[in-house]
Amino acid sequence: xxxxxxxxxxxxxxxxxxxxxxxxxxxxxxxxxxxxxxxxxxxxxxxxxxxxxxxxxxxxxxxxxxxxxxxxxxxxxxxxxxxxxxxxxxxxxxxxxxxxxxxxxxxxxxxxxxxxxxxxxxxxxxxxxxxxxxxxxxxxxxxxxxxxxxxxxxxxxxxxxxxxxxxxxxxxxxxxxxxxxxxxxxxxxxxxxxxxxxxxxxxxxxxxxxxxxxxxxxxxxxxxxxxxxxxxxxxxxxxxxxxxxxxxxxxxxxxxxxxxxxxxxxxxxxxxxxxxxxxxxxxxxxxxxxxxxxxxxxxxxxxxxxxxxxxxxxxxxxxxxxxxxxxxxxxxxxxxxxxxxxxxxxxxxxxxxxxxxxxxxxx
Length: 363
Ligand SMILES: *Cc1c(COP(=O)(O)O)cnc(C)c1O
Hints:
Blueprint: E1 5-8, H1 10-25, E2 30-34, H2 42-50, E3 55-58, H3 61-69, E4 76-78, H4 87-93, E5 96-99, H5 102-115, E6 119-125, H6 136-148, E7 152-159, H7 171-188, E8 194-198, H8 203-207, E9 217-220, H9 222-226, E10 244-257, E11 287-293, E12 305-306, E13 311-316, E14 321-325, E15 335-340, H10 342-350, E16 355-358
Parallel strand pairs: 1-16, 2-3, 2-9, 3-4, 4-5, 5-6, 6-7, 7-8, 8-9
Antiparallel strand pairs: 1-10, 10-11, 10-15, 11-14, 12-15, 13-14
The structure holds pyridoxal-5'-phosphate (PLP).
The site of pyridoxal-5'-phosphate has 15 residues, from strand 9 and helix 9.
């Protein structure tokens, strides 16, 4: 089989999804499965839906259109605010979208009227991470304008933490989201179906006994795909962290000096010129088993790779991953398996050089 390739264990993904859906249901929280790191891979989305994921979230309308064509029969949520240039497509294919701008609400309302459809609105609130969101003191006015626009249905409010500044979901900001939900309901005399607390970064707080309050919805990607929470990258108990693995092929394997020689300047991907007198990278000068893999920046984010046992990643350039091997003695043509971070997975899925295949799980 060709390399590099992603090996996707659908059985393990099913287990991760079912475990989280069941666990969160005990706290009254529904799950939207966010498939953007896989570019909306239909096989994975079908697996999640089988496991009880009720809605699918995607950041790009192209992926939502692809999933519609693939026959995914659950409502789809566009988790990035729609571009004005794409509102017609958004109304046609996404049931709900996240929004924080009045002009976008107006354009979606107009598109929904033209198409004779009703489009769901999740208003995003800024609670400190400084990515998307309406400031709390502007929320009531935005809700009022949403309610006044034809062919829109206000589904609720949501927030997104942990992405831009790593702001941690906690008792304080989650209580604020609940308070805002209650305030809107009281002000306008309505029930908001969704109070969407965030992404995989909310799981540690909930697992530690966080009080959900009004929170009844999460949008989960990393936890379902990689079995980890994003704030500290710790494994979530009971989930597989190896549901998706990257396989790369060895193209050179030699005993080589463990120190470079010659005058040194900037490397291909380094931000700065190395120290004038570079410190030795290994304990003592000597020889080591160095291996080159046909895998590089064009395929994956090398910073996000975890090597197999006995393998140490020295660095990467566009097309090569350079590793040192202790104990193991790979040969040219051998394959090695690496675990992926979210950014590594995202780039591998996006690269035209990386294929993927589905692996049936050993019992
Ligand atoms: C990517 C994204 C998510 C999912 O985040 P994970 O950390 O992968 O769970 C949820 N909501 C929004 C708005 C996102 O952009």
